[in-house]
């Protein structure tokens, strides 16, 4: 293959577009492009490399410009936008000239030499092929710390119910653009765009074993914020995959966390010398506020947003409905219905279940209903 740009960019475009999200990876770009070139030349594959950069400011642009003078390398800089690996990948895909796409990291942890194997899996009918660390034959470099290994295993375990893949967290994958779900169906958060695509797209996935090596240069961008974003992303995918059962489970989990706040405030107020009945009344409202906010962020995140005050009032009303239903059910069951009259703990538990169901239905239809007037949905916070 000639070094001239005219020869490198074939008239009909490249056979594969490699999309790589970058942030402060200047030290790795030359080696990355060189290894991709060697791997593609060995297989006779026309290629291009798109570096989708989150405005690194570390000299990456100059290096990419120099590489682009002799190789099919382009850099797209995402200026004045929140730093987000998934969005960087989607931006790069938009710029790709080939329908066959490969996504990989810039830190050289993913072997470019296996790109051809990923493309072969696509040619054999897979919608998506992933470079798998955990499929038979795959492995992780021994230099990985125990913390990194444990973190990866736990994340993989959490994601496994969403897909049968052994390594659903892989960031090294190939797919056909024509198999991508519509952009308005994608709602990625953080760095696991591959998991987003395979779950929301319902893609048939084939795994190709790889050896994953730790980065030699630069620094890992994985921090607690990224891990928190991953958990939010995972919650959204569970909601997408399992629908109403998971939404009800999420609502219940939020309610349980609110009970902890309710109880804590109740005892704190009593220790401050406030009467127990007044303490019980006052402790209800911090718990309601917490539950409203958590349900807004998680359980009903996909519903249109009402103005905060309006939605809080509606949720408070729904919570009162649930509370009254809870207590009323307990009173009726414990007074007139056997075996609840003889076993009041059963009546208490039944009241909690009935009240929670009433709370969920009223909150879902009254506070977080699926459509709201346009003038009330302007607040997206």
Task: Give a verbal description of the structure.
The chain has helices at residues 5-8, 26-43, 60-68, 85-95, 115-123, 146-159, 193-200, 224-242, 244-271, 276-299, 308-336, 344-367; strands spanning 16-22, 47-53, 73-77, 100-103, 128-132, 139-140, 173-176, 205-209, 211-212. With 381 residues, the protein is α/β, with parallel strands linked by helices.
How does the major sheet shape up? Answer: 7 strands, mixed
For the secondary structure, the number of strands is: 9
**What is Rg?**
26 Å
Shape: elongated
Mean pLDDT: 87
How helical, in percent, are the residues? 40-55%
In brief:
By secondary structure, this protein is α/β, with parallel strands linked by helices. The protein has helices at residues 5-8, 26-43, 60-68, 85-95, 115-123, 146-159, 193-200, 224-242, 244-271, 276-299, 308-336, 344-367; strands at residues 16-22, 47-53, 73-77, 100-103, 128-132, 139-140, 173-176, 205-209, 211-212. The two termini are 52 Å apart.
């Amino acid at each position: 293959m000639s070094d001239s740009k005219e020869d490198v960019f074939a008239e009909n475009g490249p056979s594969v577009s490699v999309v790589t999200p970058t942030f402060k990876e200047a030290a790795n770009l030359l080696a990355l492009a060189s290894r991709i070139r060697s791997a593609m030349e060995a297989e006779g594959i026309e290629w291009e490399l798109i570096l989708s950069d989150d405005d690194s400011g570390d000299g990456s642009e100059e290096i990419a410009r120099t590489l682009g003078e002799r190789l099919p390398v382009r850099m797209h800089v995402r200026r004045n936008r929140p730093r987000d690996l998934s969005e960087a990948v989607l931006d790069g895909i938009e710029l790709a000239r080939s329908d066959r796409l490969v996504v990989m990291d810039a830190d050289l942890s993913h072997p470019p030499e296996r790109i051809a194997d990923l493309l072969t899996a696509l040619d054999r009918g897979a919608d998506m092929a992933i470079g798998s660390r955990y499929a038979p034959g795959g492995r992780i470099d021994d230099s990985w710390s125990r913390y990194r290994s444990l973190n990866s295993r736990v994340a993989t375990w959490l994601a496994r119910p969403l897909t049968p893949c052994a390594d659903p967290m892989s960031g090294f994958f190939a797919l056909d653009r024509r198999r991508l779900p519509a952009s308005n169906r994608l709602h990625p958060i953080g760095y696991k765009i591959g998991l987003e695509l395979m779950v929301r797209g319902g893609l048939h996935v084939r795994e190709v074993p790889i050896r994953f090596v730790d980065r030699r240069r630069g620094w890992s961008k994985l921090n607690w914020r990224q891990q928190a974003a991953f958990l939010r992303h995972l919650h959204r995918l569970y909601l997408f995959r399992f629908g109403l059962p998971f939404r009800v489970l999420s609502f219940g989990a939020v309610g349980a966390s609110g009970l902890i706040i309710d109880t804590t405030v109740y005892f704190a107020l009593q220790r401050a010398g406030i009467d127990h009945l007044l303490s019980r009344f006052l402790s209800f409202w911090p718990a309601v506020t917490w539950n409203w906010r958590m349900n807004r962020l998680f359980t009903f995140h996909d519903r249109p947003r009402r103005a905060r005050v309006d939605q809080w009032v509606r949720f408070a009303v729904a919570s009162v409905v649930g509370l009254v239903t809870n207590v009323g059910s307990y009173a009726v069951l414990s007074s007139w219905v056997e075996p609840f009259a003889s076993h009041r703990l059963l009546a208490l538990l039944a009241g909690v279940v009935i009240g929670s169901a009433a709370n969920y239905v009223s909150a879902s239809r009254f506070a977080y209903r699926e459509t709201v007037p346009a003038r009330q949905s302007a607040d997206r916070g």
